[in-house]
Structures are given as C-alpha cells and as structure tokens.
Amino acid sequence: WVDEENVFERKTYKTFKALLDNYELECGEQEVVTNEERKENRDFIDAIMETDVMQEAHRYLVEKNKAPKDEIEFKRLLYKTWFSLVRRTKGDRDFDSSSFEHVFVGEGREDHFIGLHNWIQFYLQEKAGNIDYHGYFRRETVKDDEHFRLIALQFNWRGEKGKPMSSCFLGTSPEFEIAAYTVCFLSGKHGRNMDVQLGEYEVEISCLPLGRDCIGTAYIAAARM
Question: How many CB atoms lie within 10 A of CB 225?
C-alpha cells in the first residue's frame, strides 16, 4: 500500500514518474527523445541534486576523484550516464535503450522481460494490470517493527514476457537509488559486485557497464538477500 497523494507529489518522485512513459518497451525499437522528454530528464536531475543524499554522493565522488567538483558538470555527467541512448545488444542497428530505461522502467526482449529494478515502476505497472505478480522473497529486518527494504520478485509482463527474478529496494526514494548506483558505477566497481553498508545492513550491488560511459544494469544481488 502506498499513500500516493503524500509520496508521489514530492518533487523527486513527481519528476521521476514523468520519465516512466518516455520509452519504447521492446528492445530493438529505436528510441526517439523529444525536446519535452529532454526537459523532463533535466528536471529530474535538478530535483535530485537538491537532496542531501545526492549532495553526499557528489561529495564522495569528488573526494575520490571520480566526478567533477562543479555541480553543473556533475549534472552533465549524470545525464550522460543515465540518459544517453545505447544499443542494448551488440550488433543492433538502432539505439534502443538507456541506463535509466533498463534499471528503472524495464524492457521486453522476445519472450522475456529484462531490467526493472525499481519498486515505484513495479507498483504502478501492477496497479495498471500490466504485471502478473507470482510471488517474492525478502530479506529479514533487524528490528521486528521495521519495514522490509529489499525484495526479489517473480512476474509476467502483460501475460507474455516472464522474469523469474527481479530484485529491488523497497520504499526507497529515486534519489537514493540514483545515488547508490551512480557511486558504484563511477567508483569503477562495475563488472563485479560491490559490498555496500546501508545503516545496519550490508548489501551487494551488481553494476555492469554497457560501453564505457553507461550502466548496462544495476540491482541488488538477490543471492545476498
């Protein structure tokens, strides 16, 4: 259950939601980015950069010499990392994907579904009837009254494309997830899993590159849940 009026009207959530319908579902279909969609991308980056978690992520990356100190330049780097169009499959003719689309929206490929590691998109698509949910398992919490924060799901997309496992954070903000995955990627940890301490929990984030500058996928490693 989500208090949509309270949660989704927050600036970072509102600008995040505006991005979710900007993509072609199927891999192999050329993505066309309109001027309005470019503005929505920039609005989202502007919104998350106003938050403490993104400011801390920026500070950390600058300290490690992994990102420019100038905030405008860092925003450009975020845009390039998350919104540059790429070819999902080597040899494809069309630029049919982006880091953001794969991680936060999801993509269809033949008879299966790939990506979609975000609870907001999952919630919205299940509510719309596009996701047939087949169950989950979750990581136990430290405290009995604590909300679950890590979950792995099984589902079918529109009754056709299945995904046997998709792990994600649960209840976290868009800025938190962008910060976590960006730090892992720019820290040069892509290509192998990275242990991350989040409060009382140690989690393992898998962050794989697609080309030199973009994230191919990023998610919580389900084996450590």
Answer: 15
Distance CA 177, CA 181 (A): 6
Under DSSP, the state recorded for 97 is B
Alpha helix positions (H), 128-190? 174-186
Beta strand 107-109 pairing with 194-198:
unpaired
pLDDT beyond 50 at 115: yes
Q: How far is CA 64 from CA 41, 160, 185, in A?
A: 26, 45, 13
Q: Report, as residue numbers or ranges, the catalytic residues.
A: 102, 117, 163
Question: What DSSP string runs through 19-65?
Answer: TTTSS-SBTTSPP---HHHHHHHHHHHHHHTTSHHHHHHHHHHHHTT
Cα dihedral 211/215/218/223 (nearest 10): 10
Q: Are 202 and 196 in contact (CB under 8 A)?
A: yes
Q: What is the pLDDT of residues 145-176, one digit of tens each?
A: 445 578 888 888 877 778 878 889 989 999 99
Cα-Cα-Cα-Cα dihedral sign, residues 188, 116, 168, 19: positive
Tell me the one-letter amino acid at 109: R
> pLDDT tens for residues 81-112?
999 999 887 777 789 899 999 999 999 988 88
Q: Where are the domains of the chain?
A: 4-224
Strand 194-198 relative to strand 161-169, pairing: unpaired
